[in-house]
Amino acid sequence: MNKFLRYFIIIISTTVIFISPKQTIIAQLYTNNDTTSIESLLSRAKQLAYNNEKVRARQICREILLRDSTFWDAAVLLGRTYSWDSDFDSARIVLRNILKHEDKHYDAIDALTDNEFYDQNYLKSIFYAEKGITEYANNESFIFKKARALNKTGDYQNAVKLLNELLKLNPSNKDAADLLLIVRRECRVNKITFNYSINAFDESSPWIFSSLSVGRKTAGFGTISLRYNYANRFNQDGHQIELDAYPSVSKRIYVYFNSGFSNKRNFPFSRITIEPYFKLPAGFEISLGIRYLNFDHNRIFALDSNKVLVYTGTIGKYLGNYWFSLRPYITPGKEGWSKSVNFTIRRYFRDPENYLSLSFGTGVSPDEQQYAFDPGVFYVFYLKSKKVTLDYQQKIVQRFILNCGFGYAREEIQANTKRTRYSADLGLSFLF
């Protein structure tokens, strides 16, 4: 069933349900065949909805509304279940119909405020929150939800003002206090980060890699970062400058862009990355991208045998406090097609800046800065490896973020010759 037809059916069905405060003939027939109380049915629907049986809960809500078209609690629950399933348009149809009949209905306004927020229509969420504040003066829930949406729009000053007012009304409001800390942190749009890593081998001198970056959050380009990378490998010093940006195309599409240049040692002479990301319903996210690496020391951009193209992408899924991600890399070349893959499981704690991450995979990818790229030699992409890494990130004293990681890899250095690599990483960021 196409999208238009599905929404048309929802509009017609809800119009029939809400057409009259009196019961319809169909409702009367249903009542004659079932003596279960409406309250009991609603209780059952709530139980099902809260136990992830939302389809059955919706069926019961419709049965209730056929009995009594003005039983708004069932209509609100019906709209909520659509919203929880990310069917935001269907939720709007149901909830707005309630307001057509009862303009000041608290639960309908509240549900619409949440529905627009979840759909990232933050200005519309603010509109309904303000309606709730107008109809229900000093209501803590609507004040909080307006501040929550203001924070998402980047209006940190007014969000802080509202939260301070809310905490004056109720100093024990933990949600407001927690959000105030988040908003104040969001106000810190600049970040300086230093990273240091060492890769040790069983029979050779270690490799050193470090970086220093300065980043700033912007409205249209996401976080823009300028980064200096240093690598010491084989007694040679390599230097690289990189630029990262995340411009937004729409509320569900953004692009990762990266470009870099080096002094021709330990890094490709130039590199470019373009990778659009698409946010999908049910917590999914996918991307498709390309990494361009140029090893010609005389040209910034080359399209002949001096370049390497790597095709990549991700399939990610948020599930509660967990994030799962699968990223393959495919590199075409004269020796054949190189293939590598990484799988990551990440557990978030208080917020996205506090997490524990486990990754494992095979092969070599251009995103792994620990590998030495010798000028004109690309065989590294065709070597085999197996690796596992563990990363932990923790925010400390609000302005600092500490990151550390450990890794183990068993990898080829040439055909039929393997080595063991141990890695340790340490990073510190300062927010201001």
Could you characterize what this model shows?
This protein is of the alpha+beta class and 432 residues long. It folds into two domains: 117 residues, Serine Threonine Protein Phosphatase 5, Tetratricopeptide repeat; 242 residues, Porin. 34% of the residues lie in helices and 38% in strands. It has eleven helices and 15 strands. A 14-stranded antiparallel β-barrel has the order 1-2-3-4-6-7-8-9-10-11-12-13-14-15. Helix 5 runs antiparallel to helix 6, helix 8 runs antiparallel to helix 9 and helix 10 runs antiparallel to helix 11. The protein is elongated. 26% of the residues are buried. About 5% of the residues have low confidence.
Please render the helix and strand layout as text:
Blueprint: H1 3-18, H2 25-33, H3 38-50, H4 54-67, H5 72-84, H6 88-101, H7 106-118, H8 122-135, H9 140-153, H10 156-169, H11 174-186, E1 190-201, E2 207-217, E3 223-233, E4 236-245, E5 248-250, E6 253-262, E7 270-279, E8 284-294, E9 307-319, E10 322-333, E11 336-348, E12 355-362, E13 385-396, E14 400-414, E15 417-431
Antiparallel strand pairs: 1-2, 1-15, 2-3, 3-4, 4-6, 5-6, 6-7, 7-8, 8-9, 9-10, 10-11, 11-12, 12-13, 13-14, 14-15
Helix pairs in contact: 1-6, 2-4, 3-4, 3-5, 4-5, 5-6, 5-7, 6-7, 7-8, 7-9, 8-9, 9-10, 10-11
- Name the CATH superfamily classification of the largest domain: monomeric porin ompg
The amount of helix comes to 25-40%
Mean pLDDT, all residues = 87
**Global morphology:** elongated
What is the CATH class of the largest domain?
A: Mainly Beta
Main pleated sheet = 14 strands, antiparallel, barrel
- Structural class label: alpha+beta
CATH topology title of the largest domain: Porin
- Tell me the CATH architecture of the largest domain: Beta Barrel
Run of helices and strands? HHHHHHHHHHHEEEEEEEEEEEEEEE
What is the overall number of helices? 11
Radius of gyration (CA) equals: 28 Å
How far the N terminus sits from the C terminus, by CA atoms, comes to: 51 Å
| Tally of structural domains | 2
Number of strands: 15
For this structure, the quaternary state is single chain
Percentage beta strand:
35-45%
